[in-house]
């Protein structure tokens, strides 16, 4: 089968690889109809998340059709259409049963202290092949894959594999509640989804900070207030918008690959930190292999974290879902301490949130479709990676169409609704967050 394969930092290829087989009684084989490219995938190619094994299939987002199940999988059958959550969990340990699927005691071969398992990641994350392929083996399939109604098409469902659950989790970490003013740092896919998720969780105002014009425009189309860090100092702008106080809640949706402002007052203010940021970049990505302006590691690994702490009002909350690998050793704890901030962070417990999000989309309370700004065939996957990595205009979220047999084409969900709740704040009563 065809798959996107990691061969080294700066080196990914579309290869022919063996099809997966059932290895455990709780496995399923899923024929993938749609996958997607995530910023986490880019970390592996840029070198900002180490530990990858050559030959690893990339990708951790997928929609597909169940082909075969092991004897322990009693809730799925061949022909079921499912969305596959990005992280893998057993469903029976105390962490899973409490909803902390990302901290499952049994999924990682390294043992209970080894941490989160996800598809297409490094050996420390379980060493599983990923989902940018024609077929995938899904462990613990009696827990992970979530069945999809025909009213939820592939274009919607692919965003429920990782992006929207992570955004929902980010808003939960930030403790977003009724009437809160929320800043979202980063207008990539998770940041865009966080606009809708924060609004559904009660946010009164939402301010999105980024430096890429088309991503800011996408946020404005969701009626968020926007701040361009290449034209104004984002911390000062956020304080001005909030009467000098700062925001109640911040969602850091950037992580280790943050970029310094290219121009403007923020760039000037950070000039004396250049040496420090260079040191942080070398620490975060000791091995780099850029190809011109492609696969270039972020040159300010802690900048989003610093801005998040500075934008928050005293006694506010910062929820961090942008990825910071263990080699990132710096964080502005002193500033956070002196402001009595609450800091929450971590990997998303996807399986906790995916079923609810499927229901919200199926009912029409949420329509994530506009977030997919590019569709690419499997044959063009490597080029799509490059365009997404370079943050080219219009490449905010890239979906990969892998196989149209059994897929529900984008826009064909008959009752998916218009998703007014994602832009105008309507439908809030139907989208309660109780128990989420």
Task: Give descriptors for this structure.
13 helices, globular, single chain, 2 domains, Rossmann fold, six-stranded parallel sheet, 436 residues, seven-stranded mixed sheet, disordered C terminus, Quinone Oxidoreductase, Chain A, domain 1, alpha/beta
Low-pLDDT residue intervals, each spanning 5 or more residues: 414-436
The pLDDT mean sits at 92
**Which structural category do the helix and sheet elements fall into?**
alpha/beta
- Report, as a whole number of angstroms, the end-to-end distance: 38 Å
Largest sheet: 7 strands, mixed
The number of helical runs is 13
> How much beta, percentage-wise?
15-25%
Cα-atom radius of gyration: 20 Å
Total beta strand runs: 16
Shape: globular
- State the fourth-level CATH superfamily of the largest domain: Medium-chain alcohol dehydrogenases, catalytic domain
State the domain count: 2
Name the CATH architecture of the largest domain: Alpha-Beta Complex
CATH C-level class of the largest domain is: Alpha Beta
State the CATH topology of the largest domain. Quinone Oxidoreductase, Chain A, domain 1
Order of helices and strands: EEEHEEEHEEHHEHEHEHEHHHEHEHEHE
Helix content: 25-40%
């Amino acid at each position: 089968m065809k798959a996107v394969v990691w061969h080294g930092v700066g080196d990914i290829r579309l290869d022919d690889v063996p099809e997966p087989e059932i290895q455990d009684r709780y496995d399923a084989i899923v024929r993938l109809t749609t996958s997607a490219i995530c910023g986490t995938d880019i970390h592996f190619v840029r070198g900002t998340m180490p530990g990858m094994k050559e030959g690893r299939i990339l990708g951790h987002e997928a929609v597909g059709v169940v082909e075969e199940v092991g004897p322990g999988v009693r809730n799925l059958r061949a022909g079921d259409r499912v969305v596959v959550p990005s992280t893998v969990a057993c469903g029976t340990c105390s962490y899973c049963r409490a909803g902390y699927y990302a901290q499952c005691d049994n999924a990682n071969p390294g043992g209970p202290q080894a941490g989160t398992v996800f598809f297409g990641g490094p050996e420390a994350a379980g060493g599983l092949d990923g989902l940018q392929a024609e077929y995938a083996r899904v462990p613990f399939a009696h827990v992970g894959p979530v069945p999809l109604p025909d009213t939820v098409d592939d274009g919607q469902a692919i965003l429920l594999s990782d992006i929207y659950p992570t955004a929902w989790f980010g808003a939960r970490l930030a403790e977003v509640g009724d009437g809160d003013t929320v800043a979202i740092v980063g207008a990539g896919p998770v940041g865009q989804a966080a606009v809708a998720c924060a609004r559904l969780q009660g946010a009164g105002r939402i301010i999105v900070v980024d430096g890429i014009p088309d991503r800011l425009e996408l946020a404005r189309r969701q009626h968020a207030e926007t701040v361009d860090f290449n034209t104004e100092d984002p911390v000062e702008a956020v304080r001005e918008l909030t009467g000098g106080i700062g925001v109640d809640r911040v969602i850091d949706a950037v992580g280790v690959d943050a970029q310094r402002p290219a121009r403007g007052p923020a760039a000037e203010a950070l000039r004396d930190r250049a040496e420090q940021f260079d040191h942080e970049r070398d620490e975060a990505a000791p091995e780099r292999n850029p190809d011109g302006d492609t696969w270039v590691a972020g040159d300010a690994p802690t900048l989003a974290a610093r801005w998040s702490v500075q934008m928050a009002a005293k006694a506010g909350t910062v929820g961090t879902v942008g990825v910071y690998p263990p080699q990132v050793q710096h964080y502005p704890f002193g500033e956070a301490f002196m402001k009595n901030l609450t800091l929450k962070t971590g990997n998303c417990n996807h399986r906790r949130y995916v079923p609810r999000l499927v229901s919200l989309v199926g009912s029409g309370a949420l329509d994530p479709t506009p977030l997919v700004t590019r569709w690419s065939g499997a044959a063009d996957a490597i080029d799509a990676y490059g365009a997404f990595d370079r943050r080219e205009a219009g490449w905010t979220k890239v979906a990969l169409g892998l196989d149209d047999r059994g897929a529900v084409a984008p826009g064909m969900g008959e009752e998916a609704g218009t998703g007014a709740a994602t832009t105008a704040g309507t439908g809030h009563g139907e989208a309660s967050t109780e128990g989420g």
